[in-house]
């Protein structure tokens, strides 16, 4: 790999390591692409057009936010509540960016491009690599593979489901819940995660009869604020020895 | 332009702005443990609320129907570490089956 200006110094990665990272990142891209199928189908079943569905995958390009948007719109929630929830779910991408910026070392137009593919999968594929070069390989390979396959699969799913007469008869209304569950499950580590999840679910259900559709989920986001304010966080981890 | 299109574009712009801000802000923002914890807990709160409301509410009413059974099947699939698409498919399939009976 040719070193770009501004790359942090690091030992050159053996090509076998690099091949392994590329292989892992492509596998993640394929796996993620397949659930683009379900996103496309759910989105048109929720009442979005094929064009709107594809626009979400091309422009929003962050799975959980997209599922939330179409889930809320499909449940009769306002489009504004859908967009707000999508943006709140996107906050974690900002945190990934903070962690990634030093190792990626991107500026100018390249940074504008890199930002678009900062998602769960690309951040995960950059983490824990033995060198910055391998981290960059993981990030870009996973980010671009997911982008291409996610958008192709979205279009196929949306097109295939656009003429379904009765999404409910096919159980597509529960498919959204199952999708949220599958996105939630890997994050459920530790007692605090469970406490926040249960409290948020209770707040949202309890608020449902009294607030317009979509608002209960936004109210549940306040549980996070309460949890963080109640107890100061754990001490910041010591800086890694490799850091400047 | 319809309201739905406007929401699609505004939501997409918001999500992109957050991604770009992450790559552009100084990394020391992350040193604040509250920021880090809020970042980890926010998606948990939102996703849990979405699971709950999409399963047991219809409009502004609470409703227990085939969706709850479908979600129970999804929980089992998640515990068995089934891939994403399988979790979604078995949940939808079992709800559809229940409605047929």
Can you describe what's shown?
The complex is a heterodimer of chains A (244) and B (101). With 244 residues, chain A is mainly α. In chain A, 70% of the residues lie in helices and 0% in strands. Chain A contains eleven helices and no strands. The longest helix of chain A is centred in the N-terminal third of the chain and has 31 residues. Chain B has a two-stranded antiparallel sheet. Chain B starts with a helix and ends with a helix. With 101 residues, chain B is mostly helical. Chain B has four helices and two strands, in the order ααββαα. In chain B, helix 3 packs antiparallel against helix 4. Chain B is 76% helix and 4% strand. Chains A and B meet through helix 1, helix 2, helix 3, helix 4 and helix 5 of A and helix 1, helix 2, strand 2, helix 3 and helix 4 of B.
List keywords for this structure.
A: 244 residues, mainly alpha, 0% strand, disordered N terminus, B: 101 residues, two-stranded antiparallel ribbon, 4 helices, extended
